[in-house]
Amino acid sequence: MNIGIIVYSHTGNTYTVAQKLKEILDGEKYSATLEQVSINSEAKPGEGNFKFTNTPAVDHYDAIIFGAPVHAFSLATVMKSYLEQLPSLSGKNVACFVTKQLPLTWTGGNRAVNQMKDICISKGANVLGTEVVIWSKSSREQSINNCIENLSKLNF
Ligand SMILES: Cc1cc2nc3c(=O)[nH]c(=O)nc-3n(C[C@H](O)[C@H](O)[C@H](O)COP(=O)(O)O)c2cc1C
Fold it and tell me: Taking the complete model, does pTM exceed 0.90, yes or no?
């Protein structure tokens, strides 16, 4: 089974989690591929005036894990726009995670990951799970490990 791990990462945190996830998932049971959504480098985070430079296709994946940062208590606009422009996700199992700086999931984490989930459901996906990774120093390691453990346990 082919799993696509598709992330947008502005400063590299979400990408770091995605790399660890790929290491765990890529093996006998699954073949995991990590791809990045990217935009022109001059665009500032949170502003809508960006141009995509890479929008990974999803049709060849059986299941997909989407990852993105929280920006201004919401899902990063780049990931929101990327998900909205995708074709149907019908029949695909999906999981979503976000990374965020502030401790406590209610400072944008739950809202952002639910935005991802809702867009995926609106495209026909079967959303198996969601995770919020808190990047503040005291919680980071445990939060990353929980995310990876919970996502890798899902029955894609
Ligand atoms: C423009 C901007 C807005 C942000 N807003 C929030 C926020 O509302 N809540 C939060 O917890 N972290 C916020 N952060 C921190 C990022 O979510 C956090 O550092 C995340 O892990 C970055 O992921 P990345 O390195 O993959 O881009 C913000 C960061 C930026 C650049």
Answer: yes
